[in-house]
């Protein structure tokens, strides 16, 4: 069960729904999300054979940042899925996906047991419930396949900072955010038939502070995490 972000909200930004928020954020998304948040964690994982992954699904692919990284790592057939057409348009321009699909991550409409590797990056904080996502990922995942999830760390969300962006007028706007504890992920993944192989966490370090000097007060706080699940 997700905890209400309102219990932790210190900034009181105007909040919009996920589809509306990402549609507006799409043109500036890649200029605001740092590789330190997710791609650096993917590079730290030791239990994923990227090059050996023949059929890969990038769930909530957004603008295709992770897709470019995956192709650079040697994945062969890559499918991307997102439910915001504006984000998919940006992903399409990357020319790294064999197929792009407009659908919800909990109801993809894709074939069962079709992917030996599924990646989902920086979307789980927008899920009101984790069970539908993990259940759909398990349905899509081939036998012995792996699910890699990179998330916005609940600790950092509970410091009062929702996922947010600046609108065209400069107004900070929050995207609907939910707090899922690590135990929530473990419980939902286990119910779906996954077992945890690996987990890494990213903290606010010198690289982060070089990009965001005003975050000195957050030094050494965890901001993101990556989990590798095996079906």
Structure description:
With 231 residues, the protein is of the alpha/beta class. Helix content is 28%, strand content 29%. The chain has a single domain (3-230), classed as 3-Layer(aba) Sandwich (Rossmann fold). Helix 6 (131-140) crosses helix 8. The longest helix has 11 residues, at 182-192. The radius of gyration is 17 Å and the shape is globular.
What name goes with the CATH superfamily?
Vaccinia Virus protein VP39
Question: What count of domains describes the coordinates?
Answer: 1
SSE pattern, N- to C-terminal? EEHHHEHEHEEHEHEEEHEHE
Oligomer state of the chains in this structure: single chain
- The counted number of beta strands is 12
Q: Please give the order of strands in the largest beta sheet.
A: 5-4-3-6-7-12-11
CATH topology: Rossmann fold
CATH class bucket: Alpha Beta
Main pleated sheet? 7 strands, mixed
Overall shape: it is globular
Mean pLDDT: 97
Cα distance spanning the termini: 23 Å
Give the low-pLDDT segments. Answer: none
Instruction: Quickly give the CATH architecture.
Output: 3-Layer(aba) Sandwich
Determine the strand fraction and express it as a percent band. Answer: 25-35%
- In DSSP terms, counting alpha (H) and pi (I) runs of 4 or more, how many helices? 9
> What integer value in Å does the Rg equal?
17 Å
């Amino acid at each position: 069960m997700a905890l209400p972000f309102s219990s932790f909200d210190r900034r009181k930004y105007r909040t919009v729904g996920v589809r509306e928020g990402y549609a507006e954020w799409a043109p500036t998304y890649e200029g605001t999300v740092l590789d330190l948040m997710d791609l650096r964690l993917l590079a730290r994982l030791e239990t994923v054979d990227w090059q050996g992954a023949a059929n890969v699904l990038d769930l909530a692919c957004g603008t295709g940042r992770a897709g470019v990284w995956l192709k650079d790592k040697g994945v062969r057939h890559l499918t991307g899925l997102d439910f915001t057409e504006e984000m998919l348009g940006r992903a399409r321009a990357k020319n790294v996906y064999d197929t792009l699909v407009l659908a919800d991550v909990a109801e993809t409409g894709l074939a069962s047991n079709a992917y030996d590797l599924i990646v989902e990056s920086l979307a789980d904080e927008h899920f009101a419930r984790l069970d539908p996502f993990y259940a759909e990922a398990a349905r899509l995942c081939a036998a012995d396949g792996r699910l890699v999830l990179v998330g916005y760390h609940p600790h950092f969300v509970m410091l009062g900072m929702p996922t947010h962006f600046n609108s065209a007028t400069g107004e900070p706007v929050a995207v609907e955010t939910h707090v899922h504890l690590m135990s929530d992920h473990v419980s939902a993944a286990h119910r779906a038939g996954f077992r945890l192989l690996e987990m890494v966490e990213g903290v606010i370090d010198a690289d982060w502070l070089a990009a965001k000097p005003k975050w000195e007060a957050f030094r050494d706080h965890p901001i993101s995490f990556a989990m590798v699940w095996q079906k």
